[in-house]
Design brief:
- This protein is α+β, with helices and mostly antiparallel strands and 260 residues long.
- The protein has 2 domains: 138 residues, Fructose-1,6-Bisphosphatase, subunit A, domain 1 (Fructose-1,6-Bisphosphatase, Chain A, domain 1); 107 residues, D-Maltodextrin-Binding Protein, domain 2, CATH 3.40.190.
- It contains 8 helices and 15 strands.
- The strands form 3 sheets. An 8-stranded mixed β-sheet has the order 4-3-5-6-7-8-9-10, with helices on both faces. The protein has a 5-stranded mixed β-sheet with strand order 12-11-13-15-14.
- A hairpin with a 5-residue loop joins strand 1 and strand 2.
- The protein is globular and about 50 Å long.
Length: 260
C-alpha cells in the first residue's frame, strides 16, 4: 500500500473529528448521565460513542494504523515506525457534563513516536484548530500564530485546576508573582488560547498521552513551544507546558529553580 500524504490524512482527520463533534453535541446540555472511572473522573455515553465512532472510521480507512484511545485502550500498529492515532473523544468531560462549551474532541497522529498531525475541535464553539508537520497551524481555516508578548509580567497564564499541583505548588506560586493575569480556562481550551495568540502560557502538572497528543505539533506550527516540565519537547512526558515561544526561556528559569 502506498503511504498516504499528510494532506490526505488531514482531510480524513478533519472530517472524522467533525463527525464525532456533531455526535457529542447531541448529548451536550442534556443532563447526560455520568459514571466515575477509577481515577474519579467522569465518563459519559458521549465519550464512549465518540471514541467508538472514531475507531470505526480509522479501522475502515486505515486498517493497518494503530489506535490509542482514552476509553477503549490500544490497537498496536503492524510496525514500530507505522502510524498511530491517539484519541481523546471528550477532553474536559467535567465541562461537558456541566454544560460549559469549552470541551474538545482531540485527535493526534504519530509516525513511530513523532507527532505529525494534531486536531483540537471545540464543537460547542464551532472552533477547529489543526496542524500538520511543516504545514502550519490553522484556526477555522485561517493561519494561527502565538502572541508577540515578550515579558512575563505581561503574560496571561492558564492552568486546568488550582488543586492539581501537589509538590509543584511552589512553581505555581512563583509564576503567579511573575505574570500579569492567571485563569483556569484549562484543559484543551488553554492550549487553544495560547496557539491562537490569546494567552501566553498554559501548563498542567499531570497529563495523559491522549490529552497531549495534538498539541506539540499544533504549538510548534503556531510558533510556540510544547514541552514537559523538564523542557523536553514531547507528548509522552506525563505533564506539559505550552508557551508562545518568546516566554519559554524566562518561564523555564522559574520552573527549573522551583521544581527542577
Amino acid at each position: 500500500m502506498t503511504e498516504p500524504t499528510l494532506s490526505t490524512l488531514l482531510d480524513f482527520a478533519l472530517d472524522a473529528v467533525h463527525q464525532i463533534g456533531r455526535l457529542t453535541l447531541g448529548h451536550f446540555q442534556t443532563q447526560v448521565d455520568q459514571e466515575r472511572k477509577a481515577d474519579n473522573t467522569p465518563v459519559t455515553i458521549a465519550d464512549k460513542q465518540a471514541e467508538e465512532k472514531m475507531r470505526s472510521l480509522i479501522t475502515k480507512y486505515w486498517p493497518d494504523h494503530g489506535i490509542i484511545g482514552e476509553e477503549f485502550g490500544n490497537k498496536s500498529p503492524q510496525s514500530e515506525d507505522g502510524y498511530t492515532w491517539i484519541i481523546d473523544p471528550i477532553d474536559g468531560t467535567k465541562s461537558f457534563v456541566a454544560g460549559v462549551p469549552f470541551y474538545a474532541n482531540l485527535l493526534g497522529l504519530v509516525k513511530g513516536k513523532e507527532p505529525v498531525l494534531g486536531i483540537a475541535n471545540f464543537p460547542a464553539l464551532a472552533d477547529m484548530l489543526y496542524a500538520t508537520k511543516g504545514g502550519g497551524c490553522y484556526w477555522n481555516g485561517r493561519s494561527a500564530h502565538t502572541s508577540s508578548v515578550n515579558q512575563l509580567k505581561e503574560a496571561l497564564l492558564l492552568t486546568s485546576g488550582l488543586n492539581y499541583f501537589g509538590d509543584k505548588q511552589e512553581t505555581w506560586n512563583q509564576l503567579i508573582k511573575a505574570t500579569y493575569i492567571q485563569r483556569t480556562w484549562g484543559d484543551a481550551y488553554g492550549y487553544f488560547l495560547v496557539a491562537t495568540g490569546r494567552a501566553e502560557i498554559m501548563l498542567d502538572p499531570a497529563m495523559y498521552l491522549w490529552d497531549s497528543a495534538p498539541f506539540q505539533i499544533i504549538m510548534e506550527e503556531a510558533g510556540g513551544t510544547f514541552t514537559d516540565w523538564k523542557g523536553i519537547p514531547t507528548i509522552y512526558g506525563g505533564n506539559a507546558i505550552a508557551t508562545n515561544g518568546l516566554l519559554y526561556e524566562p518561564l523555564m528559569e522559574i520552573v527549573k529553580k522551583s521544581w527542577g
